[in-house]
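Quick entry between incubations.
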Amino acid sequence: MVHAEVAQEEPCFEIEGFSLWYGENRALDRVTMRVPKGRITALIGPSGCGKSTLLRSMNRLNDMVDSVRVEGEMRLAGDPIYGKEVDVIRLRKRMGMVFQKPNPFPMSVFENVVYALRVDGVRDRAVLEEACERALRDAALWDEVRDRLGASALGLSGGQQQRLCIARALVGNPEILLMDEPCSALDPIATSKIEDLMASLAGEYTIVVVTHSMQQASRASDFTALMSYGHLLEFGPTPTMFQTPRLPETEDYIRGRVG
Amino acid sequence: MSEPRRSPEHVAHARRRVLLQDVAARAVVTVGGLGTIAAVSGVFLFLVVVVWDLFLPARIGEREALANPRAAIDARIVGTDEYVGILWHIDEDGVVRALAIDDGAPLSAVALGAEGVASTAAVSEPGGTACAIAFADGQVVVGEVGFATSFREVGDVDQSLRSLGVGERRAVDGELVERTVRGGFRLQRLDFRERSSVRFFADGHPVIALHRAARGADVVVAAIGQDGRVGVRRLRRDEDPLTGDVVMEWSPVAAIAVGRSASGSPRFVRLTDRGTNLAVAWADGTLERWSLRRLDAAELAETADLVPGNGELTALEVLLGGVTLISGTAAGDVAGWFVVPDDASPDGFRLTLGHAFPAEEGAAVRVLASSGRERIFLVGDSGGHVRALHMTSEKVLARVVSQGGELRALALSPPTDRVIAAGSDAIETWSFDPRHPEVSLTSLFLPVAYERYPEPAFVWQSSSGTDEFEPKLSLVPLVFGTIKATLFAMWMAVPLALLAALFTSEFLGARQKARLKPLVELMASLPSVVLGFLAAVVIAPAAQDAFPALLACVWTVPVTVVLAAQVFQSAPPAFVAAHQGWRLPLALLAVAVGTCLGMVSGPAVEALLFAGDFRLWLDGGLGSGLGAWVVVLLPLCAVGVILGLQMRFRDRLDRLVARGQPGWLVHGCGTVVAAAVSIGVAVLVGFVVHGGLGTHGPVDLREGLPIGAFDLSPFGTFDQRNALVVGFVMGFALVPVIYTIAEDALSSVPDHLRAASLGAGASRWQTAVRVVVPAAASGLFSACMVGLGRAVGETMIVLMAAGNTPILSMNAFAGFRTLSANIATELPEAAPGSTHYRTLFLAALVLFAMTFAINTVAEAVRQRFRQRAVEL
Ligand SMILES: Nc1ncnc2c1ncn2[C@@H]1O[C@H](COP(=O)(O)OP(=O)(O)OP(=O)(O)O)[C@@H](O)[C@H]1O
Ligand SMILES: [Mg+2]
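Done. Structure below.
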């Protein structure tokens, strides 16, 4: 059930009756959801309910999985995501993705950040350097790595690596940033840094963040969506969701976790 | 149910059982592990032990003097029979006498000359029994010292002989009786065979020096008369095939007009090269070499000086093989000389100094004697010092001092296991074991001066039809062949296998992958003997004719594929996205079209670059080296031009497309232009380097060098079984090996890296090249190294398809012989314990060292990269 406040927001990304099967196994069941533009949307729900699947469907990373079959529609700023005529690569360039586990490439910090530009064929060093600095500043990492741009990204700490991955996702000015449990592998200090970062990015970027931490969802998001067994249960403004959820299941889930 | 099991007794029992299992498991693992290590070390140790013997020095035993002073006096030549039981000597009185070598007991004797006429000179062939003896009355006798051998059973011999042990010998009635291993008795009696005598110079003039050489069934005899004249006669030996009667007939004397460059009487005369070369030498070292190709028209081929400066030539002998002359001087220096090809000389050869052995004692060399089995010879000087030397390796094998008075004659027994010195007072013998004098680290891995080779050379030529042949055991051609095979196979296999692995791991779905991977791996189960057979019998003959077309395909196929890809990629994105499934069929179509183009343009390419006939062109008979330069330079130029054009014109092309020109047209034209420009540049550079079309410029890539020296030119005479064919087929055998490991390495790159890359908007290809390949680099490297190890050790394919020619040519169209193929071909026929046999084991050790080095490098690199892999 979707709260009215959500419907009032201008949508950035629309999901319309979207179902997904892994082989015979239905992982998403007619999910319909409009991600508000310029806001942070938290996606919560029990393990295995399909949060990651939904997120990965949004930039078609599930194409990597052989047995996947989908139904329904998704749109980014009105452009269809699924469909025969869609150029997936161009589409993905409009989105940024951050994963649960920090996954920098085995390259230098600099090359990691500008990867998206490199694959676009940008070769102008000045352009790359400027974009790199901007993305690293946006990701609040610039001061920590400005002296070691040439060093291997694998030498950074876990928190730094994750912010590097965020910088990597930001460098192409994505319309939407998809984050799948970006803090689950991090300590509380690194986590709070990333949360601050998300807060500073809100407004400029639309963010969808999957999280298992109720505190994080309540602290850092504008809207919260609860999923269960492939369904979208409830989707509303974060304060309402945490204080006066409409569905008893939502209440149970939030209390159970928080308690 | 679980309660009683938890009782203390049960726990104790269970613990005891676990403990026991632990101990048992540990014992099994330890024994198995140690056993494996022991087995491997055992094999290695065995190899080392067999090889070790190669490098041991020669052995010489204690001096043994024979107790027959009469026999020793004034011997001219000595020798022994095959079994080294009888010693014979031809003395100044013209009698050949035999005696038992064990106790000096005299056996029979045969007088060769007329009663009471003393001999003036005598010679025998190296280590052999063929002799020529000259007498004071002008007679020359030729023949062979032989032994009439008969066998008796125990019942047929005298009572006193029955007590003889096996191998024991006794002189009885002028015969030597030996108890054989089978218990019977072998009786040997001296016998002078094939005897023929002639008054050498028609006027009965005495001969002071002579020599003989076999020329087919005939014997050529050259002699110096007392007055300094030199003559040559030939003893024809005709055997009636029906009756078996032998007719021997002497040709008239062919007088040789020696002395054009020296004064006085010549002192030495020697025949070399089966009597086709006559060397006449004077005491001052001057040597005239006469070509005796026609006896009646001898020609002076050259004059040489064997003793530079004022020295005196005191001995001249012929080494086994009849090619090398050994000279000895009054100063004690010894040298080996042989002819090498020389276009400036009248007969096309020139005598050169091959090996020099500096004097040790400073006493004049008196006697030289060659072994009949190996390139070993004895040198005896006026001080009684006797040295055994090996000519080719220039090693001093043994030194002994004779105490039998003035040295008269020296000999090595036919098996080269005994040194015999006949002095004025006694005959002495030493047991001798030269071991493996021709092998040393330098002879195995550095160039060696062989007879008739103008330069020291690397040669592997082990098989010997006769004892006269000198085995040449350089491992360099074999190591070179191994490297060549590996290079060509890797050049084929690595790109193919890596690309196939990349394709399967990055571009195929799980289901297709599950089907394709086992299929490729199945290729590995093709026995390499089948591949070798295919290569030798099917592919080599087919490739022979199709070569120019294949060469054309090398260029047309990539160009059409790239062109097709460009055109496809520059179609509208929507179209590309909608027709992703067409990629593979389109690529295959492009390959087919490219192949057809290549086939069609083959003859044109042949006509244009290779003067119309590729194989003749390779021989160097036709056209210029330009074609080769173009072929070599084209890939470089193509890469350079394409990179250059990309950098320079890409933006402009993009702008063109942006302005509404059809993308496929722009990019297609770009590709065609790049191809044309690279061909143009290649031709141009070829011209510059080569110096013009139609002429043989200063650099021709086809120029070859003689066998035995490195020839790094990639082009040369065409052999049907060549490196390209082997490379192709061995590459086929390596593909599954490299593919499997490479595919595993690529697949083990974590998916989250791929997801990150794809999520950043990279295409699959970009993801593969920029992220997956670098992340899997160590695994890919390991794959290549394992392939390399396999290539180095591969045997059957190279054995069957490489032509087995141990040459040092990088020529892609020539064959080679690898260490492994060499071992496989030659080990079965090598006599166990022989030099050849042990050298083959050494080849195995070298092979082992090579694979070991490769694997070590591979492992080291893997370890270095593993660190990084862990962090991913
Ligand atoms: N590649 C895949 N192939 C088959 N089934 C999959 C695959 N990925 C996920 N699934 C299944 O789809 C369902 C949803 O998985 P998903 O990863 O989206 O859950 P999640 O909500 O992200 O859980 P978590 O909170 O533990 O990350 C699960 O039942 C899972 O087993
Ligand atoms: Mg998840």
